[in-house]
Amino acid sequence: MDAISLTQQLIEFNTVNPPGNEEEIARFLGEILSGHGFTVEYPKHAEHRLNLVATKGLSEEKLPIVLSGHLDVVPLGAEKWSVDPFGREIKGDKLYGRGSTDMKAGVAAMTIAAIESFEKDAPLGGVKLVFTADEELGCRGAKQLCDSGYDIGRASALIIGEPTANTPYLAHKGGLYLNAKTTGVTAHSSMPELGENAIYKAARAVTKIENLTFKAVQDDTLGFPTINVGYMQGGLNLNSVPDKAEFTIDIRSTTKLANSEAFQQLKALVGDEVSIEKLVDLNAIATPVEHPFIQLISEICGIDYRKEGTKKSAPYLTDASVLTPWLDHAPTLILGPGEPSMAHKIDEYCHVSKILEAVELYKQIILKNGKRSE
C-alpha cells in the first residue's frame, strides 16, 4: 500500500459532517495500523462516530511525536461536481474527491510515514497518531475526547496535517464564535411607541462592534485580533415592532489576546442589551521560531522563518487549539499535502506529487525528531 492508493480508499468513505459516520473509516485505518504493530484504540465520540489513537515504539527515553488529522469532511455543496466526489479519480497530477485536500491525503500520508518510519531504525520515543471525528464543526471530536478524561499523554512535538501544500506553518489564530440576541416588546408598527424594538438594539450593538479595536499588543506571528458580524436576522413581519433579533460574531484571537479576555471586552462594549452565547471557543496556538523543533523543521523543509515575508501561520482553525495545550504545549507544526485554496470547494483535489512529498517530509521529521535532544 502507498499513500496515493490509501488516499483513494479513504475518499470512498462518505464522512460528510453532519452526520460524519467516522466509525468505518477509523476501523479501516486501525486494521492497517494494527497489522503493522501499532496499538490501536477507538475512543467513542458518538453513535457511529469514533476517534482513532494508534501508538508504536513508546519508550521511557523520549516523548513520542504526535501526528494528527481529522476523518470528517464538509458537505458537497449546492453546485454539481464534474467528477464523482467519492470516486477517487486521478487526472494528471490531481486526485479528486471530497476530502482529498481537507484532509484525507494528510491522514494517508501520516499513516504511511508512521508505518515506514519503523522499517529500519525505529524512531526514539515512538509515534502516536491521533485521528479525530467531528472536526469540521468546531474541533468537537478532539474537545470531547479531551473533556472525557482520556489520557493523551505528552509529546515531544505535534504535527497537524491540515492543507498547507507542504509549507510548514507555526501558528494559527484562535476562533471565538458567538451568537448574540436582543429582545423587545412587539406592537403594531403604526404605534411603535408602545413597543420596544429589538432590531434597533441589535443595530446599536453591531455599530459598536464595527468600530471595536481590541486592547491587545501585536502578535509577532499572528498580527492583531479581528472581529466580524457575519449573519443577522430578526422581526416578525413588516408592520410589527420586532421583539427579537440575533446575529453572529466571529472573533479571531491571537496568543496576545485570549478568547476569555476578548469576550470580556466585547461584553463591556455592547452592554446588557445583548445576551451572548458561545458556540466555539478555541484559542490561538503558536510555536516560537527559536524552538529547537522549529529549527529542525527549517532544516528539513529548507525554509528560513526569519526571512521577511516568510509566511508562518495558517488562516484557519485546527485541532491544535485543543491538542497543543492538552499535550502540555508541545511545539506544534501545521503541515499537510492538501491545497489550501481547494478546501471545501467543488471539485476538490490534491496534487499526487504533494502527497508523496508529504510522506517523505513526515518520515524525516519523525526520524530526525527522535534524535533531537529535548
Care to describe what's here?
- The protein has a six-stranded mixed β-sheet, sandwiched between helices.
- It is of the alpha+beta class and 374 residues long.
- The chain contains nine helices and 18 strands.
- 29% of the residues lie in helices and 22% in strands.
* Helix segment tally: 9
User: How many domains, in number, for the residues?
Assistant: 2
Overall pLDDT, averaged?
97
Global outline: globular
Short description:
The chain has about 375 residues and is α+β, with helices and mostly antiparallel strands. It has helices spanning about 5-10, 25-35, 100-115, 140-145, 200-210, 260-270, 290-300, 320-325, 350-370, and strands spanning about 40, 45, 50, 50-55, 65-70, 90, 95, 125-130, 155-160, 170, 175-185, 225-235, 245-255, 275-280, 285, 315, 330-335, 350. The protein folds into 2 domains: about 5-170 and about 285-370, Aminopeptidase (3-Layer(aba) Sandwich); about 175-280, 2-Layer Sandwich (Alpha-Beta Plaits), CATH 3.30.70.
Annotation keywords:
Aminopeptidase; six-stranded mixed β-sheet; 29% helix; alpha+beta; globular; Alpha-Beta Plaits
Secondary-structure topology with pairs:
Elements: H1 3-12, H2 23-34, E1 39-41, E2 44-46, E3 49-50, E4 52-56, E5 65-70, E6 90-91, E7 94-96, H3 100-116, E8 127-132, H4 140-147, E9 157-160, E10 171-172, E11 174-183, H5 198-210, E12 226-234, E13 244-253, H6 259-270, E14 275-282, E15 285-286, H7 292-301, E16 313-314, H8 320-326, E17 332-334, E18 349-351, H9 352-371
Parallel strand pairs: 5-8, 5-9, 9-17, 10-16
Antiparallel strand pairs: 1-4, 2-3, 4-8, 6-7, 7-18, 10-15, 11-13, 11-14, 12-13
Helix pairs in contact: 1-3, 3-9, 7-9
